[in-house]
Task: inverse folding
């Protein structure tokens, strides 16, 4: 009878200790988890703020680029830096209906297949041989 | 076995203390969590709960090539708390002054002024802050005027029963400069001067300053859209603010983990206009040139797409810088092209000519005697407005247009009759709003036939006794260019969301068909005569291109009489005449031409030509085929 009582008390003590450990670790786990949540939330907040900051910088840069591209500003810089750039003049411009690359190529190759010795095709390699 | 210390009595006492302690704690917990729960939660809510509004980003305004015309930028209002300034930072003040762009002496005065005088006025029974008057005007010993940014706390005030007194008050914030950009503020922050800091504010900025100012409009410092597209498209641009509910700590920092509800802000849509900054620049440079040469009261140039009616550029002289709108008088902020009415003068002659052709009353080669001074019409003799020249032969309808004969135009009007003339004027858009979406457009003046006097049938066909806005005159010419349809002036091309997806796209809007395509072609051919040898504006001709247009010179009505010295000169036209691409109007009000009159030929036609030549290059407008020259072959349906 006495042995049964002692065994029961021992079991009770062990279970109590296990329960303490279990509930303690749940409590500690909860605290750790909440801490991690708050850390993550704060990190997300910081990232969000940085994102907004970057967007703000992008907007500011775009506005600065746009200011620099303003036609009046470009005209001013042209004068200040003495670039001498002038708008195209209609009298000096040829308006064409065909692809300009093809037209320029045709112009360049004009006379290529004529009898003139000047307009022959030669390759460096073949000349060396 | 000894009983030792743990007697039954002591164990009982210890147990009772422990139980009572727990009972006390339990009772307190019941009070905290059950009985006083509501009150305490309310207190916690008040202290820790916060709602943060997340402002939506206002959409941008772009031109047709997505150049930014209006955007948002964060700025800083930089100020100083003179109470916390450190003596060792004083050597950095010079650099701070140069970064802020203010004289050092002024900066030093603001930074060194630590107090200001406060005049306190109280009523007999008042115990609150009501009646506090800050003496911020006029010179004082402190001399700091800090405006609305300065605040007072009630404990600084001296309260007197029904009296008034002054007291030195510590300055905790004195404004140094408003609207400092981020880059400059970073440099200021890098100086690390204790007490100098800035508050971020968001401002609407206009990178192109005065370019297209009357079209873009502006948002004022209070955040209200006040004019132009900013005001008209505010519904699309403004977006919807978001908010989030959460808690904050003792330092008022948000505790991100306790966010309970969150509504994301919805950014405003971006608006893409049909205008092009390059063409707008061409127009505004031309306006500057006109202003320099002729010093007019006002001038306007409008460029639109002949086929769609979309406005490519619209400029006015004078104009204003959108970033400094508060310095521009209200009169300058008006869009002259739609808010002012002028007599169209000879540019209106296209209406009786097109009307008579469309009704089949005349052909382009029908001749009229334009050397007469008067004519009998409906049983009465009507005197014509005299022409500048006498003609030795009968003029064809084409010549009436190319030589701008008032007598010929009146006879065409008489053929149409009063009602016919009125109807065609209405069809061409006179006397009614064009539908331009913003800016306080007026409808001009076109009286109903019942209010016409006896001579109006000789005056109205010549463009007098009728008033119109420059935009109405422009779009009346646009009827010929578009092939006979009156188009609605449009300025907004697209509405896009913040990711760039097109939400809504605007297309050509035809108000009505006015004349047949055949008559429009005939009119275009006749209007070519204006810019040819013998026409009134051969100086508008662009070599290699068919220019169709009409000059206009209207005497200004001053004190009820037509002035012979003050004119509105204009040239309205389009090119190439056989397949119109652009319509250009140049209208100059009261130009001062040295030694001459401000005829449309003098003040309008050269500008038309200069802009046209630039547009040929920029828009790659091809010259038309010469008359009689057939295309050699066709590719993809287009003659090559």
Result:
């Amino acid at each position: 009878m006495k042995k049964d009582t002692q065994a029961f008390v021992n079991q009770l003590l062990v279970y109590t200790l296990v329960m303490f450990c279990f509930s303690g670790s749940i409590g500690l786990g909860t605290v750790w988890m909440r801490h991690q949540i708050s850390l993550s939330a704060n990190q997300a907040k910081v990232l969000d703020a940085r994102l907004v900051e970057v967007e703000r910088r992008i907007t500011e840069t775009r506005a600065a680029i746009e200011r620099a591209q303003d036609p009046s500003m470009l005209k001013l810089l042209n004068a200040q830096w003495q670039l001498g750039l002038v708008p195209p003049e209609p009298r000096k411009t040829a308006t064409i209906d065909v692809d300009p690359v093809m037209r320029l190529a045709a112009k360049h190759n004009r006379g290529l297949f004529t009898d003139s010795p000047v307009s022959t095709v030669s390759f460096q390699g073949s000349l060396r041989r | 076995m000894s009983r030792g210390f743990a007697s039954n009595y002591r164990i009982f006492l210890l147990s009772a203390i422990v139980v009572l302690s727990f009972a006390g704690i339990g009772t307190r917990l019941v009070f905290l969590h059950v009985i006083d729960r509501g009150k305490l939660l309310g207190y916690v809510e008040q202290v820790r709960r916060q709602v943060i509004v997340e402002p939506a980003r206002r959409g941008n305004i772009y031109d047709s090539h997505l150049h930014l015309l209006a955007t948002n930028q964060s700025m800083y209002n930089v100020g100083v708390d003179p109470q916390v300034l450190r003596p060792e930072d004083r050597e950095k003040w010079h650099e701070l002054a140069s970064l802020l762009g203010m004289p050092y002496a002024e900066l030093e005065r603001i930074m060194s002024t630590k107090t200001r005088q406060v005049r306190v006025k109280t009523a007999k029974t008042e115990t609150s802050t009501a009646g506090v008057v800050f003496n911020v005007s006029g010179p004082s010993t402190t001399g700091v005027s800090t405006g609305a940014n300065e605040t007072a706390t009630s404990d600084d005030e001296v309260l007197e029963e029904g009296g008034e007194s002054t007291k030195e008050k510590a300055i905790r914030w004195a404004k140094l400069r408003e609207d400092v950009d981020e880059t400059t503020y970073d440099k200021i922050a890098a100086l690390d001067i204790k007490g100098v800091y800035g508050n971020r504010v968001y401002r609407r900025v206009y990178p192109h300053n005065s370019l297209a100012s009357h079209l873009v409009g502006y948002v004022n410092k209070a955040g209200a859209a006040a004019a132009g597209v900013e005001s008209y498209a505010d519904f699309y641009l403004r977006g919807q603010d978001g908010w989030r509910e959460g808690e904050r700590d003792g330092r008022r920092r948000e505790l991100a983990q306790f966010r309970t509800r969150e509504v994301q802000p919805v950014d405003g849509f971006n608006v893409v206009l049909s205008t092009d900054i390059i063409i707008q620049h061409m127009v505004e440079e031309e306006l500057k040139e006109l202003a320099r040469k002729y010093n007019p009261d006002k001038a306007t140039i409008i460029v639109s797409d002949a086929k769609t009616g979309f406005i490519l550029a619209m400029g006015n002289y004078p104009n204003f810088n959108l970033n400094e709108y508060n310095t521009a008088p209200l009169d300058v902020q008006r869009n002259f092209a739609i808010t002012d009415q002028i007599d169209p003068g000879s540019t209106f002659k296209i209406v009786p000519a097109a009307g008579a052709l469309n009704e089949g009353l005349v052909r382009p080669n029908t001749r009229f005697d334009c050397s007469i001074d008067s004519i009998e019409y409906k049983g009465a003799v009507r005197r014509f407005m005299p022409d500048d020249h006498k003609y030795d032969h009968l003029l064809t309808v084409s010549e009436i247009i190319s030589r701008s004969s008032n007598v010929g135009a009146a006879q065409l009007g008489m053929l149409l009759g009063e009602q016919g003339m009125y109807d065609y004027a209405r069809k061409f858009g006179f006397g009614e709003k064009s539908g331009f979406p913003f800016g306080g457009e007026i409808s001009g003046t076109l009286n109903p036939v019942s209010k016409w006097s006896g001579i109006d049938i000789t005056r109205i066909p010549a463009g007098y006794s009728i008033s119109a806005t420059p935009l109405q005159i422009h779009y009346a010419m646009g009827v010929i260019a578009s092939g006979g349809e009156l188009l609605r002036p449009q300025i907004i091309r697209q509405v896009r969301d913040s990711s760039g997806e097109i939400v809504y796209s605007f297309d050509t809007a035809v108000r009505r068909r006015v004349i047949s395509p055949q008559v429009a072609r005939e009119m275009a051919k006749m209007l070519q005569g204006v810019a040819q040898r013998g026409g009134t504006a051969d100086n508008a001709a662009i070599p290699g291109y068919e220019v169709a247009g009409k000059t206009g010179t209207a005497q200004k009505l001053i004190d009820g009489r037509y002035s012979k010295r003050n004119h509105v000169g204009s040239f309205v036209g389009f090119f190439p005449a056989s397949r119109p691409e652009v319509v250009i109007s140049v209208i100059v009000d009261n130009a001062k031409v040295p030694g001459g009159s401000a005829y449309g030929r003098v003040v309008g036609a050269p500008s038309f030509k200069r802009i046209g030549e630039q547009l040929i290059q920029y828009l790659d407008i091809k010259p038309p085929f010469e008359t009689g020259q057939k295309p050699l072959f066709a590719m993809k349906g287009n003659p090559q």
Summary: Residues 24 and 62 of chain A are 56 Å apart (CA to CA). Helices of chain A lie at 2-68, 71-80, 100-109, 124-128. The interface with chain B takes residues 34, 37-38, 40-42, 44-45, 56-57, 59-60, 62-63, 66-67, 69-72, 87-88, 90-91, 93, 95, 97-98 of chain A (CB under 8 Å). The radius of gyration of chain A is 43 Å.
